[in-house]
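Annex B. Sample input.
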Amino acid sequence: QVHLVESGGGLVQPGGSLRLSCAASGGTFSNNAMGWFRQAPGNEREVVAAITRSGDSTYEAPSVKGRFTISRDNDKNLVYLQMNSLKPEDTAVYFCAAGDYGGYYYIPKEAYEYDSWGQGTQVTVSS
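Annex B, continued. Sample output.
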């Protein structure tokens, strides 16, 4: 397992942008697929985006596709979530997750496929 710490959350107006970062330590970062999940009050935790070990392939949920981009830097043990054109419905706690489930080119999209989680960072989209 790896230790994950998210940063970059905050309050932003609708239409604005934020970039979340997730720093990993205590493991071999490049052995893990990475994902971003979010959870709003009263809702289930849902996948936002995920990326393969190498970073060659990504997945973005339909609700964020075209607005959010996931990327990673294996030299710096960092994964990012660039969020543009933010909407009030994007308001949630965002979590970074790491997992070695599946093969090298597999993109995990379910929470159970990840075994390390960060503490979360709050994103609030409001005018």
